[in-house]
Design a protein that fits this description.
This protein is mostly helical. It contains four helices and no strands.
């Protein structure tokens, strides 16, 4: 096995057309409860721990319907201007 080659990461999944809407709803629920939504969402993405997200307005369950790697992919594409 060669260790000097770059691994190719490709995840095939159905596109979740509601990801942006769900993320906005989660963001709003965090604001309503007085949290810093960016910090909380980043904490969730990095750790996978859903307790970073409030259960207010079912936000915790909503965000768990989106794969964390999908969130990162969408954010990176948005950040560098490659919106799909």
């Amino acid at each position: 096995m060669e260790f000097d080659k770059t691994m190719h990461f490709n995840v095939e999944r159905e596109e979740n057309s509601k990801s942006k809407e769900i993320l906005k709803e989660v963001y709003q629920a965090l604001v309503e409860k007085g949290y810093n939504p960016i910090n909380q969402i980043v904490g969730y993405i990095l750790s996978g721990d859903p307790t970073y997200i409030t259960s207010h307005d079912d936000a915790r369950n909503k965000i768990r319907t989106i794969e964390r790697d999908e969130l990162l992919e969408k954010m990176l594409k948005n950040y560098i201007g490659l919106e799909d």
